[in-house]
Design a protein that fits this description.
heterodimer; B: 49% helix; elongated
Chain lengths: 170, 186
């Protein structure tokens, strides 16, 4: 498996693995299995990876994340200015992808929290639960039923409907 | 039918009475039963007796499977070897922060060396594609604008009639002979 990305670039929250508090003399099967896995799979794989990296040498190539400039949105475009429409549409699509990834990250955090806490996750993972709730609701509100042919215009119209509903309610 | 069975019995009788093939001469010569010979265990040096096993042909199936295997492996093995060598000797790129004032080339946004090579050799940079699309949109906008203008100009010229379009050429007034009109009572 290739090396994971440099953790300092995109830092993750601190780990919360609980401290081991063993109160019985019985051997821990999970520990035995994990040690078995370590010596039979992990060590050979790591050694192999080390050999390969030795062969590759130090001339590493790099890849970067692309940064896009912000352009005027659909609301700031003149009517009939199709170039402006195109740029706004591309920007909206990039933002849509970014928002999907944000939702995935929050989901992953909630999943990790549930795995950590076990049966008592409903009490202990409150922050993650609230965050996930907020984020998923916001995503549904904004991008919810736009469908496969979603576009910036449709999203804008959806926003308009939302605002109209709000003013009608008030 | 009866003749057949008579012939068969005659043949069996003749075979049994054949002096060249007399296995045992005992009282059961004239009877129909055949003497039960002893089963001797014979040890062959090979895998037993050769049998002619009758089964439907598997020639076509085996040929198909051979061909399938060969055709897949003729390209599969070189490709697998190539990808292995690239992964071992050239290796994937590492993520790094964009250095200050440096604009990465468009292939430097990908990780795997083969993807980078494809992006470098065959594909245009996404910036160029964007600009190409914008150029197309500009051309189409200008075309649409010009067509709208032309329709409006047509409308105006048809209405007012003072433009170069919609002019019907009439006769030159110097060619008209007005002499019949000079004397009113003709």
């Amino acid at each position: 498996m290739p090396e994971d990305h440099d953790k300092d670039v995109y830092p993750q929250p601190p780990r919360q693995t609980p401290v081991v508090d063993k109160q019985t003399t019985l051997p821990n099967p999970a520990l035995i299995l994990s040690k078995l896995f370590y010596y039979s799979v992990d060590v050979p794989v790591t050694k192999f990876r080390g050999i390969i990296e030795g062969i590759q040498g130090d001339k590493k190539s790099h890849y970067y994340h692309q940064k896009f400039r912000r352009v005027p949105e659909l609301t700031e475009c003149q009517e009939g200015d199709y170039l402006c429409y195109y740029e706004a549409e591309m920007q909206w699509r990039r933002d849509y992808k970014v928002d999907q990834e944000i939702v995935k990250v929050i989901q992953e955090r909630l999943r990790a929290c549930q795995q950590r806490e076990g049966p008592s996750y409903r009490q202990n993972c409150n922050t993650e639960l609230k965050q996930f709730d907020q984020v998923s609701k916001a995503f549904q509100l904004r991008y919810g039923d736009l469908g496969a042919y979603a576009s910036g215009r449709k999203c804008l119209m959806k926003q308009k409907e939302r605002m109209m509903a709000e003013t009608q309610k008030a | 039918m009866v003749g057949m069975s008579v012939l068969r019995t005659a043949a069996a009788f003749a075979a049994r009475l054949n002096p060249l093939k007399r296995t045992c001469q005992s009282s059961n010569l004239l009877s129909r039963t055949v003497a039960r010979s002893e089963q001797v265990v014979v040890r062959h040096g090979s895998h037993g007796k050769r049998m002619f096993i009758i089964k439907p042909t598997d020639f076509y199936d085996r040929r198909f499977l051979y061909l399938l295997r060969n055709y897949i492996l003729y390209t599969g093995i070189p490709m697998a070897a190539l990808v292995t060598f690239i992964n071992v000797f050239v290796g994937e790129a590492e993520l790094a922060e964009t250095p200050e004032g440096y604009e990465p080339e468009h292939w430097e946004y990908y990780k795997h060396p083969i993807t980078r090579w494809i992006a470098r050799t065959f594909y245009d940079s996404p910036v160029k594609d964007y600009e190409k699309m914008m150029a197309l949109i500009q051309i189409e906008t200008e075309k649409a604008e010009m067509r709208q203008q032309q329709l409006e100009v047509r409308r105006h010229m048809r209405e007012k009639g003072d433009g170069p379009w919609f002019q019907i050429k009439t006769l030159d007034k110097n060619l008209i002979d007005n002499s019949p009109k000079s004397s009113p009572d003709n």
